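Recall that a protein's primary structure is simply its ordered list of amino acids. Everything else, from secondary elements to tertiary packing, is in principle encoded there. The following example makes that idea concrete.
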Amino acid sequence: MSKLLSLCALGVSMAVLAVDPAITPPALAQAVSATRGAPPATLRLIPAPREVLRADAEIALRGTLGVDPTSDPALRSSAAEFVEAMNARGVRAELRAADSRGWQVRLHRAASAGGRAVLSAAGTALDSAMSAEGYVLVANAEGAQVVAESDAGLFYGLQTLKQLITGSGESVRLQPATLRDWPAMRWRGVHDDLSRGPVPTLEFQKKQLRTFAAYKINVYSPYFEHTLAFRSHPLMAPPGGAMSREEVRELVEYARALHITIVPEQQTFGHLHHALKYELYQSISETPHGHVLAPGQPASLDFTRAIYAEIDSLFPSPFLHLGADETFELGKGQTKARADAVGVGRVYVDYIRDIERTLRGAGLADRRFLFWGDIALHDTALIKELPKGMIAVSWEYGASRNFGRYLKPFRDAGMETWVAPGVNNWNKVWPNENVALPNIQGFAREGQAAGATGLLNTTWDDNGDALFNQAWRGILFGAAAAWQPGESDIARFERDYGLQFHGDTTGMIDAAHRHLAAAHAAIGESRAGDASSYLFFVDPWSEEGVFDLVRMRPVLARVRVHAESALVLVARARAQQQLRETDALDALELGARRIDWIGAKSQFADEIAQSFGRTIDPKRTTPVTWVDLADLSGINGRLQDMRDGYTLTRELFERSWRAENRPYWLQNNLARYDAEIVRWTERINAMDRIRRRHARERKLPTPEELGVPRSLLKAPGTASPPGAGR
């Protein structure tokens, strides 16, 4: 541990930032030359920079960060954001005119005299690949210089500088380095599901954007089915569960200063059940109260034209995402006759063309339309008929070794492509990073090789209870994989995540993540899937619950040890230092407790059944006493443990939900906890009745009275095998 601590002991600190194009070249040259020849140091940055020209051992910084309020609005905005971020980390900073006090940072346009001097002294240059977002950063004991051609490049240089400055208060340190950096992919995005339950507050969305920008993500794509409030179709949006026009405008403006483009995805074909469930929309529903718009109905295109006219007025993005995935009902309702005649693929492609033509004719000719590529891949011969100006976004969420097959048909048809991996947070009590990180790594690698221009890392909330604060590790690895060329190193990222995201210098947060990944793997080893919401809520005494319980018996203790070890590590990390992103740590602890509960409730349910079996065993030679039954239900009884496990996780879940989301949909999730609390409370009450009756009549209960499955009454070695009695 001492070696680990020494490697991770990077503090957080304060500095003096001055935005000033006037720099004395001899002083800069002296500062740069003074660091040459020093032993290299390992940089722990996310994303990893393209070129490290030099890196030296960290040094202490003293004083207050000073930022010169420049007359250039773009530089003023970047400098102010940097100061605000430093102050939020406990680093004193202020806007003030550049002077000779303390450690300073200056921002330079590449063509300026100051910029040319910095590049000359560092022995480097900016080339054409760096024009849009690249930068050169020189940070040493004399100060820091950022040189770039673009506003975005200057902004990203400051984001990297944030990571080189560690510590807080009087323990501020700098990792001196000279870097030359630019992205591998032009568009690096996050796709955030806002339609399957959680709808974030505007304040949390702003926090998301600030965090995205800090790791050089430049696209935020909120996913809408029915949670954008449309004036033309007001019936769709649930009260309290949709973004208003005013909120959208405020968020778009906020994103602009962070160099983030908001690319809305509003479904135009499938995934429209929350509109089509209303009777007013039955004429355009492929099947009654279904999910898919009916091609061939003029009103279907009228619907899309109307909602996209409002989107056009709200989102200035060069891109709009049309969705159009998973149109599984197509050809089963209003379009059945045509689909039978020409094929479902033809119906699909023709309607995509109709949507594109309709929107271009409605004033959106200057926009680029993204669409999900999954349905078109079912009939690759028709892809060449899709409009060439559209961008195919291919998604795949497994650890495939051949992601190129999702891109080649579109590239062969002359279409631009983006790739969409996923953080694997859906239907889970904690994201399965064993799947997510290799998926992101592989799809980014092969997407770059195939010429994909963007990466859209996806979060989905299929079960309605996913928390974005649990997905940050996958989100940040997506940022790294899209910025860095080729295959990103998962081990390196895992080493750096806790330090950069939480300010953890001990390595304990990273170790906690490894334990949760190991818990997922242990459940997978049992062939029960992973740490899913299903396993968390399934009644272990139901037919399905018994089946999974018996399969998981060999791994339950291991699952719990991993989850509980994660909890201990987070608690120790919190106690030893001032950590950042504490809401995300709360969400991590919730994930660990829910994984632990998957194991604990299975163990307790098994133990209750076996103890009950011993109690009522007709071969028993000793009398049954109140002690035998009290162990099952009493002050510290296992039935009470079953109730209490859901009560605790319910409280923690609600806290984490409210930290990021609106109240909308929360009760749907809490109802699942409440149902389990009631279930086990009723079993406690049943056991209390059994105990009182036994005290009066010495009558033993039957398993059915308590709901105990007879297959669990025997000891594990003799219990019914998986599937028995099903």
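The first strand starts at residue 51 and ends at 55. The first helix runs from residue 2 to 8.
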